[in-house]
Specification:
The structure is a single chain. The protein is 34% helix and 14% strand. The chain is α/β, with parallel strands linked by helices. Strands 3-2-1-4-5 form a five-stranded mixed beta sheet, with helices on one face. Strand 4, helix 4 (136-148) and strand 5 form a beta-alpha-beta unit.
Length: 174
């Protein structure tokens, strides 16, 4: 057996290797706070509702459908808007003996025409006819005008020979 004697250096060195007591923190309060904040922001956030345009499409012409549904309207109720290339806009009322009148987009143009037509008729209807070379933005502007003036009934139709004839009568050649 060896003789053991008191060595303060060895004792100091072994003190460094003693395990320190670990500190425990209670995380329950922080988790509760995180869930409270999460639910607060979920409940107070306003979700963006998508805005869509409701379209009523015509029944396709099938060989199975023998009966064609034609909806007749009075001439005085009808207002036809023609969107042309280069941001030109014309309108006419009625169907027979119609005369195309030039107007512009915006509050002083087509909007005032729509408001006057809406006030003068019981159940007005607007027919929008776009020239094949007109730009899509003009059609969207017309749909916006329909919503602004609260026009309940409007429809899209093809730009036909009658419209070319009406425009050539007033000197507009396309």
């Amino acid at each position: 057996m060896e003789n053991e004697f008191y060595n303060p250096i060895k004792e100091g060195r072994s003190a460094k290797f003693k395990q320190k007591a670990s500190i425990t923190t209670d995380m329950n309060a922080m988790v509760d706070l995180a869930f409270l904040l999460l639910t607060f922001f979920m409940l107070t956030t306003t979700m963006v509702k998508p805005k869509v345009i409701e379209l009523v499409m015509p029944v396709p012409d099938d060989e199975d459908t023998e009966e064609t549904v034609v909806q007749t309207i009075r001439e005085s109720r009808a207002l036809t808007i023609m969107a042309l290339p280069d941001n030109e806009l014309y309108y006419y009322t009625g169907f027979s003996e119609a005369e195309a009148i030039e107007t512009a987009y915006g509050p002083d143009g087509i909007r005032s025409v729509l408001i006057d037509h809406n006030e003068s008729q019981d159940d007005p209807i607007v027919i929008i006819k776009a020239h094949p070379e007109s730009i899509f933005e003009n059609i969207i502007d017309l749909i916006d005008e329909m919503n602004i003036t609260r026009m309940e009934r409007y429809a899209f139709d093809e730009f036909g020979d009658k419209e070319f004839e009406l425009l050539s009568d007033i000197g507009v050649n396309l």
